[in-house]
Amino acid sequence: MTTTFTFVCLSEKQVATAVDIQVLEDQAYRRHALLLMHDHASAVAVEVWRDDAVIDTIERDGDWPRPAPEAASPSQSPVKPRADALDI
Q1: Which of 88, 15, 13, 10 is nearest to 56 (CA)?
Q2: Domain that holds residue 14
Q3: What was the pLDDT predicted at 62?
Q4: pLDDT at residue number 1
């Protein structure tokens, strides 16, 4: 079942720095919140809203949490090889 979720990225002072509305499978909202924290470095938490209620708050714990390995294809990987590690 799909649901419309509203994601609110919050800064350290609890100021909304970004808002994103997505239609997702019910169990997919947490992963999307983690990806938003990756994209928005100033976010210390993401509130997840459904209808008129906050259903979850995903907080940053240390470095941004990386999405599950199946989420990124090799061409989209944020990790770039070091030049000295390449066999040229």
Answers
A1: 10
A2: 2-85
A3: 64
A4: 87
